[in-house]
Specification:
Elements lengths: L16 E5 L5 H10 L3 E5 L2 H6 L1 H4 L4 E4 L10 H4 L7 H11 L5 E5 L4 H8 L4 E5 L6 H12 L10 E4 L4 H15 L17 H10 L3 E6 L3 E3 L9 E3 L2 H14 L6 E5 L14 E3 L8 H13 L1
Parallel strand pairs: 1-2, 1-3, 3-4, 4-5, 6-7, 7-10, 10-11
Antiparallel strand pairs: 8-9
Amino acid sequence: MGGGKRQGASTLRSLANIVIIDDDYALEILADNLRFRGHAVRRIASAAEALRDISKIASTDLIILDIIMECRDTPMEESISGGLATGMAVFRAVRSQNANIPILAYSATQDSHIIDVLKNDKNTRFMAKWGSPTLQDIATTVNRLLGVADTAEEPTVFIVHGHNDELKLQLKNYLQNVIGLPEPIILHEKPSMGKTIIEKFEEYAFRSNLAFVLLTPDDRMAVSTDTELVKRQARQNVIFEMGFFIGALGRRTGRVLLLHSGPLDLPSDLSGVIYIDISKGIEAAGEEIRRELNYVLNK
């Protein structure tokens, strides 16, 4: 492989060598997501490190490049800006060796001059971090830059659940046997293979493009006086995993479906997000679930 669009690639899983240059550790989430899509990904955590290895970087298939990074050991003209243009040193170094390699400039920069320079490069695409693109948006852009055709994405469902095993199995059965989706992922049913719980969760979560979150009243919420009716909330693992999927798949994509049952204190900072009431069972809420899925899978 080497610089530019690859020939004969026709599926989402076609392997490409990708380098991510970004000092934000959160980009490891993107790196892992691209790995699970079949790409070989290396993340470089500084512009200085990238400049030391520029020849090898310039011979890969695609670069994902941040612009705003720490400016230690980078050329003076980028350092003057306090790191706001550090990535441009890497950009110019790459282009001096390879004019054709696709570059996805994924950055929070709002400098119109820099953005114009990037957009005027025929093999560079600028994507703003402040636009909050989803991992799917980024993966689609990566594949287009590589010349890899997007295919219809097979839904891979992850079920986040607490202690209500009956609702969990109802949901799994409904999705698999009524709607006809592939078997959903339920974490405790999968082999651990020596991984910690968080490592196992991350592995299967990154494979998923749909998440159903079962919010059931599993934990008691104690207050200092305890004079009112005691409220209940979902398990802490459910709240954590819900937040993970909202961040990974995007709040506005419709790919995270929140199902709730019983007397439950719902997270206040998610006001406005659509919840589906499953207090009468999964089948009773089936039409609403099907409607939301049709929107997500057919848009």
